[in-house]
Write a structure and sequence with these properties.
Length: 436
Amino acid sequence: MDTALIVDEVRITPILIADPPLLNTQGVHQPYTPRLVIEVVTRGGVTGVGETYGDGKYLRIARALAQVLPGRSVSDLNGLFSLAAEVSGDPAGTVASVDAGGLRGVQTADKLRLSVVSGFEVGCLDALGKALGLPVHALLGGKVRDRVEYSAYLFYRWAEHPDGGEPSAGIGARDDWGAALDPEGVVAQARRFERDYGFRSFKLKGGVFPPDEEIAAVRALAEALPGRPLRLDPNGAWSVDTSLRVAHELRDVLEYLEDPTSGMERMAVVAARAGVPLATNMCVTTVPEIREAFRRGAVQVVLSDHHYWGGLHRTRELAAICRAFGVGLAMHSNTHLGISLAAMTHVAATVPNLDYACDSHYPWQTEDVITARHVFRDGRLEVSDAPGLGVELDRDALAALHRRWQADDGTMRERDDAAAMRKADPEWITPAVPRW
Ligand code: GKR
Ligand code: MG
């Protein structure tokens, strides 16, 4: 064992990052969202970085895992899973449901742990790559493409957050995107994404307005951007009948329809008659869900997310399973920073059957913890050949975002889109599904 690869210390830094008022079926994004930055320091003096969700339930597991990692090698990636199960008091790794999970599918104790492990796995891979002088994609078997394509992630949104808050902290501050609440606003947003980033595929986050309004928005996009791949994702907000109606109305312009309805049962019924492929980041989010979904033909495209699938190696395992079953593969995204985008790009570069442009929230994020932000050209990111992930931590930015987390009274430390919506509509409660 090369002692230089032994973990000496792990630093966990919870932060709050600015997030615009993006609407979804559950509410609206809060002005800040929590993330965790994980630094894995080796005895050889190398530091690897990883990133994952930052709500308290993730932070608690991350802190416990950080305590026990020193003394193990950064190359012992498979050991992370049992270690995480042990420190979270669940050595058997039960997969019991914790809650219905909202926008990212059912939440289980196992999925929670996998999301934490993913940040550690990426941190270890970054450290290992830096120590060996190899890029992360080489540690995953090597890249099969030099650039990874991303799609524009369109959101209905307000011009600003309703909560005035403290102007110095940026709460309520306007960015220059303005509101997008109708087909014209959505098309204007898409045109800006096309102009500034070169994106060629467009996904609209739906489930916000009654389906006919969202159908009109997608039709407007199809007219404004003829021939471009389009996707619509209401996060499971529709009934079977509504899903089928929307699918039939838009089948000539949609590349795929994403999670039109909630649960395997309803997805299977819609998939059988939709006439357009169904994609998911809610119905198939863990290994135990794969068998039934694929057997029943409930989904035609899985949107992998290295966070909740447990890291980059597990994402490649998912890709192999999809390949074996002829199911397409794309990539899901939630609010994230440049460390995660680098990780997504490395793994995406190694997967032969990445059939679609990947999602990314990144253009909505104005803050970052890396010294040089990623730049999309022609809707693509270059795959870095520098050692590790190829990103450098900006310690001043990290410290400032951590101070914001420390100063928060607790309201922003947990993502709560319904609470944010109540600032504008005090009566708001998370809608039951199907909403329409
Ligand atoms: O950030 O509002 C959001 C999205 O709705 C996100 O939470 C989803 O997980 O983007 C995701 C999706 O594709 O479902
Ligand atoms: Mg989705």
